[in-house]
Amino acid sequence: MESLYHHIFLRARFISIARRVTVNPPILIKILWWLLFGVCLAYAAFALDMFRIELMSLLDCPLEGEAKERSASVPFLIHSLLGAIGLVAGALQFNPYRKNKCSLSHRLVGWTYLIAIWGTSLSGLWSAIYFDVPLLAKVIFWFIGFWWFFATTCAYWQIRNHRVLIHRNWMIRSFAISLFFISFPIWVPALQTILSSQLAWPLGLFLAGSINAMVAEALIYRLNGSHPFLEMTNDDTDLSLIR
Fold first, then answer.
1. Is the distance from CB of 187 to CB of 204 less than 8 angstroms?
2. Buried b vs exposed e over 121-147: b needs ≥16 C-beta within 10 Å?
3. By residue range, what is the domain housing residue 204?
């Protein structure tokens, strides 16, 4: 009976915190979110088109576009399809219009993001073996894939333990890696105009990953306020931490 009361008490604190994490956002935050959501939708559409072309190639059907020869077509199909879903679901998780962070819709979108990113990161690790890029670029892809899976799993584990604020921090890190797959196709072609592909690929991947990570950590620091090292504490359920 005591454990039941303890569970109910923890659940009540969890819901109270989740509802107070989201405050009424300023108009600039809403505009930035719409821009982010639009970019994620556009890139998701691009990923789905890659999925369509690759699937048609795998089935030996007539193509309107061209599919690259791959030794890992099925993992790449999974990677592109789930990646598109994960991008849109991740953007929806940070929707500033949602007032209740413990709502059913938030949890359903969260589960969608979790499953999509787990599948995308693991299939990406296999697909990267066959990417036509320098070896150092493959190593960076593998590192990003492992970190992506780890950050997403940490976010899931923290919310399972009702640590809402730390869960939010790891979700920011995870989604920053999701956005890596939007930023690196910008960095790599830009660097290829002045460098060889052997240098442009690893440098572009490094810049895309490191800049995204720094922006994520800066945002986490700003949101945590006077408690930048929240992960080092044993409990984040003190309401005084919520800004």
1. yes
2. bbbbbbbbebbebbeebbebbeebbeb
3. 2-241
Can you give the pLDDT of all 243 residues of the chain as single tens digits?
445 444 444 454 444 444 444 445 678 878 888 999 999 999 999 988 888 887 877 777 655 555 555 545 788 888 889 999 999 999 998 887 765 556 778 889 999 999 999 999 999 888 888 888 899 999 999 999 999 999 999 999 999 998 888 999 999 999 999 999 899 999 999 999 999 989 999 999 999 999 999 999 999 988 887 454 555 454 454 333 333
Its pTM stands at: 0.77
* Measured CA distances, 63 to 55, 59, 67 (Å): 10, 10, 8
The helix (H) or strand (E) run that includes residue 64 is: none
HSE of 140, CA atoms in CB hemisphere, 13 A:
21
Report the domain count for the chain. Answer: 1
